[in-house]
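Thread: quick sanity check before group meeting

JM: Hey all, I'm pulling together slides for Thursday and realized we never actually wrote out the predicted structure for the chain we discussed last week. Dropping the sequence here so it's in one place. If anyone has concerns about the input, flag it before I start.
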Amino acid sequence: MSTLPDKLSIAPFTRSVRGRITLPGSKSITNRALILAALGRSAVTLRNALFSRDTQIMVAALRTLGFAVLTDEATLTITVTGRGGEIPAREARLDVGNAGTAARFLTAFVCLRPDGFYHFDGDEAMRRRPIGALLDALATQGARASAKNFPFTLKTAGLSGGKIELDASASSQLLSALLLVAPHARTPLMVKLKGETVSHPFVGMTEQMVRQFSSLLTEYAIEGDATAASYFAALAAVTGGKLELAGLNLAAGALQGDAEFLRFLAARKYLSVAGATVAPGPEFSGVTGDFNDFSDTFLTLAALAPLLDGPTRITGIAHTRLQETDRVSGAARELKKLGQQVIETKDSLEIHPRPLTPDVEIETYHDHRFAMSFGILGCHDLRKNGRPWLTIRDPACCAKTFPAFFDLLARLRTESH
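JM (edit): ok, ran it. Output follows.
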């Protein structure tokens, strides 16, 4: 994997993309599996595990908490020896970076310890991300936090069980955090939601994985990342080519709701999906859709919208203002720099295509999804001569979930010539 510069000019594809890629393992599944394996009673080997900043943060935290975790990046395996719901370290300092899954899951996880004392901190961006509602819910179990956001110190008292009320309107991860540890409470733990949550498929993923890990496992296979698949599906559309996405699971019962992005575009004939192979469809008009259930992919569509015929309207994305950055305002800002007409509301973006403005630097806000989404737009041969016209600032931020993204993009460009 190459070292990326502070600013990366994207070389457009001058020919249709062709080839096959292997998707990295899902970050969402890998970090849930790490927690569930640690909660088990034996050693479990995770296969096709993702090795990225977010998963390395989770691995480091589990080791700090006293768990045996063996990693082998060459074979994409992680072996975790579970302790049956016991948290070995009574006191620890845990740095969660800007990993939402690590932040929320670990907060509930350490509360299984009846006499714990844990110091949590993260990146500057994490200090603005919601955690207070989870801390309020855990307080009913006796946990005491020194603050309602990062950094905080958490004194734990175990999980007695019973009914917990939770406001998960800001992030489904708050609910998933409780569902992961609920089977290890002293008495049955039932979560009652205050209002609605968002990104329901991620809650379904958690529930399904809890059931899977309730059986005695020695190995667990991680699905290829469906959100990562969205970028390469978009690449096929942008360049007019065809790609096989090895590891993509679109079967009924698959864990990842973000696979709905491919179905969404296929249903509108913008994309052709045959098994794990994606290609452009016959339509190229703007689209309208509610992205609440697969909101991690809305930036993929927003970045493509300037190339479509007619306006694109994306709704159901208000909660993404509380993710790595305010993704709604950030997307509007960058699209306007590119010459697009954008109508922004709290919960939506409406993008009216205009001629693209060249020689633009895209700000990524330390957010991997900005880097990858607009990186795909830069593959469009705007000048018809293969000369770069779009530059990505801080491209290395994609190491959060997909460290090899730009290397893989460069390989595909070379192989498609």
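AS: nice. The chain has twelve helices and 21 strands. Residues 200-213 form the longest helix (14 residues).
JM: adding both to the slides.
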